[in-house]
Specification:
149 residues, Rossmann fold, 28% helix, 5-stranded mixed sheet, alpha/beta
Length: 149
């Protein structure tokens, strides 16, 4: 995945908005907001933290007018905790968006830009404020990749 993310970040003519989605009180589900709150804004990269209410930010996201939208959230991919994958929303089968009850295909209808999901496999999504070690470690690697561009 780092290569997919790096390839996206190398597009110097594209403004990218990273949006952190997740519940900070459910351990690894807070990985999206953790990442987005640690991204440094530049002329081409910006971040927005929406936590669990992405639908309330549709207008704001569209008014920010990015070329590319990257939604960051934990998603059960049935893989090793901390595994992350960058996927085009148009290539993801219709399914409910993790714990947020939003269908990905339905969600993409609200945005005019190219939309990706940066999905991160959680280890635990029980109630609690601390992310698991492995998910936080991988989140920090993602933050570092984004902030070096």
């Amino acid at each position: 995945m780092p290569e997919d993310l790096k390839k996206l970040l190398r597009k110097k003519d594209k403004r990218i908005l990273f949006v952190g989605i997740g519940n900070l009180l459910k351990m690894d589900d807070g990985v999206g907001p953790y990442i987005s709150s640690n991204i440094r804004n530049t002329s081409l990269i910006s971040a927005l933290t929406v936590e669990v209410s992405l639908e309330n930010y549709i207008g704001k996201i569209n008014s920010m007018d990015p070329d590319v939208l990257v939604l960051i959230d934990c998603i059960d991919m049935k893989s090793v905790p901390g595994t992350h994958k960058l996927m085009s929303i148009s290539k993801i089968p219709d399914m409910t968006f993790n714990t947020h009850n939003i269908s990905l295909s339905r969600l993409s209808e609200f945005f005019k830009m190219q939309v990706y999901l940066l999905g991160i496999q959680p280890e635990k999504i029980n109630f609690g404020e601390n992310m698991s070690f492995i998910v936080k470690e991988e989140a920090n690697k993602i933050i570092n990749i984004i902030n070096t561009f």
